Fold:
Amino acid sequence: MRQSFDEYAALYDAWFLENRNVLLSEARLVALTLKGAGRILSVGCGSGLFEKILREEFGISVAEGIEPAKGMADIARKRGLSVVEATAEEADYGHGEYDTVLFNGSPSYIGDLKTVVEKVYEALPSGGRIVLIDVPKESGYGMMYNLAKAVGSWDNPLLEGVYPPNPYPIELVKAANWRTTREKIDFVRDSGFSRIETFQTLTTHPLVSDDYAEMPSEGSDKGDYVAVIGYKE
Structure:
């Protein structure tokens, strides 16, 4: 996975900038989860694109990140982030140093997510939160991505007329392992987080999800991008 993002760092940014309404819909969801978030650590911060948008458009400061791919980390540093190059499994989450640990779009690229969530729980102070945001396996995007991954390409009769005009780079699709929302909720609850919330966006078919930017809504019953938030009490 690290190699995929090193090689396709520029492609990752280009995709989001070509799908600006998807980007804004997702950024609005991330911003909603970070209200009153205190000091934030962004794990799998990628190129720092979301963190830049959060700072400039929503007044939310995310100054520190963890990113395993050097190509991505270098871009994020240019956007003002202090980045440690490490995997989520290797990362040091401190001992009460962060109020919120954010995983935006990265859970699907973390092999042992359950252990990572447990590590975060132990590191967070009372009142801290973990935020897991990505494409659910059961969603329209999730099923479309898994089909593309199975056939190895977007150029396949089974996907004809199904995917958006600018689909997510197949190289990054192949590197992902999407999980259901229920799996992520179970990881969070089993780790000890006593209060859990979910929010969602991208509630239309993937073919038209870039037609307009959505406002996020509560729940996880129809979104193709879902946030699971756990609070440590």
Observations:
- The CA atoms of residues 55 and 61 lie 5 Å apart.
